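Quick one: structure tokens for this chain, please?
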Amino acid sequence: MGKEDKKETVIKEKTEQMAAPVQINMQYIKDLSFEAPSMPFMPSEIKGAPKIDIGVNINAGCVNKKEKIFTVELELKVNAKSDDKVVFICELTYGALVTLNVPDEHVQPLLLVEVPHLIFPYIRSIIANITRESGLVPLTLSPIDFAALYRARILKEQENKAAKAN
């Protein structure tokens, strides 16, 4: 190996070390459904803030293991009710194609905590825009603690393993 080859190898290694740990290659809406069954009469019937139920599910998958390219999809289901009437139902699956530059032990937390944290503002904007465009007051979602969701998921997996062992 000549001096030039060693120099190229060192430059390549330093470039890889300096690369961002998470690179979002693209973001996309995979599925979007919105229903406001009582429109246009509903706004006049709403007497207070509707009850909002939010369900969150995070899915991650490997696209290319060697290059560490993954998909992360955040599924959000929002139901709004006023008394017993449905104000709206919104289901959104929003995803990101990401490249990770981290050791393998850090992949899962990045996919299930950091990437959802990075794409959440876009999801929040979509939900606010679609509720506003439907004639309702825009719904601004509160931040979600993805780290707490991840910890709960790990605890549940550990409990399931312990139950199977017994």
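The chain has a mean pLDDT of 88.
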